[in-house]
Model the fold of this input.
Amino acid sequence: MPTHHLPAEQATATQVLSRATPPVLRIEPGDRVVVESLDAWGHLERQASPGAVTPYRFPDRRGHALTGPIEIAGTVPGDVLALRFEAFETAGWGWTAAGRLDDAFAHSLGLAGTDPAWLLWELDRDTMTGTNQYGQSVRLDPFLGVVGLPPAEPGEHSTTPPRAAGGGNIDCRELTAGSTLFLPVTVPGALLHLGDGHAAQGDGEVGGTAIECGMTTTLTVDVVRDAPLTGIHALTPSARITFGFDADLNRATAEALGAMLTWLQRLYGLERKTALALASSVVDLRVTQIANRTWGVHAVLGLDAVGRA
Done:
């Protein structure tokens, strides 16, 4: 299996999603890639104090500082990428910011007129713990917030919202090492973008950021033509996962649950209403994130949730 290395450099960086961006690497299906990425804002230097301004990869900061795109040879719309995440290695530090927006949601939390709060984290990769300036320690469980392909439509597209076509800023904490994310191909060559490393995050990413950090990601990129679903879905070491994305949480929920019902039908040969009855006993619905204008919901079915008599 060939292994490619893609460093986080100016020449490999982008902060928009566009089918016109030239690929910085071309691989074959089945190849392994080791990809470096900066934190979401693209800090080029370590922050010395919480919220300190350091040089950024893109001073105008239009979107996430991503690495890519990676062309997967021979892929066309209609194919499905299988991205198996083998390992995540965080940088030695990270940050979290909350309360940066003075919007209706902040007002509902009693945060009107307040300054943002910042946490600066020391990340210990040996003990897999992060410690902030207040001495509080959390367990690290790293993953990438942004894994995605550009929309089929021409032009430059924001990295902020997740999209049902091509993924992007999914921010799902379940997608840690050992997981496989399935993405429908949107453009010829796929043009995979990676970045927005998270050392740890709760479901919802409720403050707007996780523990944001640089990341080195090792993954195998393959193409499957017998995926159980045509939309975005995932397999983790313990569960099957489907996703829904919409500015309306109800619609995002219906999208995620509807995809899971389809998966249950295919797994067990059920009519759709019977699949819903089974789902009511064994499927968990979780709010993936509320930070990206387009909210995310994921449905989780444990691999051992349904047995055979």
